[in-house]
Sequence to fold (611 residues):
Amino acid sequence: MLDFRRIKGQHRVRMKRLLRALSFFRDDTPRIVVVGVLLLASIGASLLKPWPLALIVDHVIGSKPQPSWLRHLAPGENKVALLTTLAIFTLALHFGQGALSAAQNFLSIKIGLQGLRRVRNAVFCSLQRLSLRFHQKSQTGDLIYRASWDTYSFQTLFQQGLISLLTALLSLVLMLAIMWKLNHSLALVATGLVPLLLFSIKVFGKRMRDRGVAAQQADSQVLSLVEQNISAHQLIQSYTREQMEEETFLKQTEVAQTKRLSQHGWELLYWLGISVVFAVGTAAILWLGSRQVMEGKLTIGELLVFVAYLAQLYDPLNQLSHVGATVSTAGAGTQRVFEILDSCENVKEVPNARPLLSNRANLGNPASGVEAPAPRPVILEGNLEFNSVSFGYEPNKPVLREVTFSVRSGESLAIIGPSGSGKTTLLNLVPRFFDVTSGSVRLEGVDVRELRVKDLRASIALVLQEPVLVPGTVAENIAFARPDASQEQITAAAHSANAHDFVLKLPQGYNTPIGEGAAMLSLGERQRLNLARAFLKDAPILLLDEPTSALDDENENLVMASLTRLMKGRTTLIVAHRLTTIENVHRVLVLQDGRVVRLGTPEEVLAKRLG
Ligand SMILES: Nc1ncnc2c1ncn2[C@@H]1O[C@H](COP(=O)(O)OP(=O)(O)O)[C@@H](O)[C@H]1O
Ligand SMILES: [Mg+2]
Fold:
């Protein structure tokens, strides 16, 4: 009893998911209605196909009296005229059915692709919106798979699920209805065939597919043995293992042969089973039908229609038997996509978050779109403060413990400490890539969680140890934060970052395209482009995470020189590992195991270190 309820519950969940997946096609409802109409017309045309022959047999070749509607087609009992008309009708029917079916398929594919596009757009937006925590937890490969391959499930669900189901059901129902109208007992025979056919398709078909999968696996085993053997060639020869390897291989090819043979055997059995069912049906209909013809209850033409319909039963039944598997596979794909769409943001903006108003002229326009009860804006100057901040990526595993310090507007603070002590984590808390577990990060005395996320992040420029470049031109990379920047502004930023000279030497200067890996640029050059980007963003707060540690001496000097320029007048947190860096800052914080162990001027900290 309980089990039954659980199954029903699962069923309901699955149904809901399918409906939700199909809701991506809701905007196309009018087009779907057109598909339905085309479908109906094309099925109607294909059901009419056997009728001209029936009419010819009955009324042209045979001598059945013509019904009045036929006499309209070819007046005066002119049999040749009637024949011509019916031949033309056959032509029109076949052509029309082909055209209708093509139009219906094209439209279905178009709607399917449109749904696919909608899903992909939604997934992309979600992935952009989700926090760093989500992305660090997920595997990139898995996300890419979900965004590219799993999204196809929506298209499959529509085309191979919904449309196929409709086609199969409509053809089946219409066919059986016409049969019933023509002759009850023959229609019953045909109806009786349906479960028999379904049974054969299900039972033999499943065996056939299972054997196919097994044969496939055995074949790929053979291939991988070949591959392993080639790559370990030297090893095998040096250990004189050829004999053994050969035996393994021979065994595997035998397995592959047996499996393939078994698959083909079941394929033949499948078709044998289907043929037997059809043979039984055709024999029964011929026997019963001919007797009805002899008794004058059925015309020969009508009997021909029956036999033709009988042969047409296979396609819709075969389609129906596959819809279940298709829908459940596609359903699993849609679930993986929904998991992305339903992941919630860890970092959420509070309702009525406070905007940041710049006291500088060139910080975008953070206070845009002020709503009715406008929250009090915060004037941005760059006073940053950590107030007993504790944080851990996982509960009970603190990475930062009671970290307290403050940096006044325009001041710089170097953060040093052993690797793994939490320096990067500390920086990540400022733009709210993560939120503190306890305590608070404050900007101008206001908890960053009360600020508009967009404004907060607009006021921060971030430079990481590994320079990040996006596919695009050099200029686009520099202007990443401000796509509307003028060429003069871009050049000025590059100048300040010591990047202008090498950019001019590139094949197309600022318009040189650089790829994801930016293979043509050295690490130092890439880092200088990142600095140029930060210069152009011109944000009052600067977060630098070991910006020079990956560089050689020459590049480090170039980058350091421009960093010093960039830091001027900006509140700066710089994670540093070289003493030269920390001599130029106002204060130094030493982090160990997530705790602040020292905080003071460079002289004080260095003195203690030495002492
Ligand atoms: N996304 C994450 N999930 C779980 N643990 C993390 C994550 N990032 C860093 N850590 C852990 O937090 C600690 C501090 O890391 P981090 O801030 O990168 O140190 P640092 O920058 O000082 O080398 C390390 O023990 C690290 O393993
Ligand atoms: Mg780090």
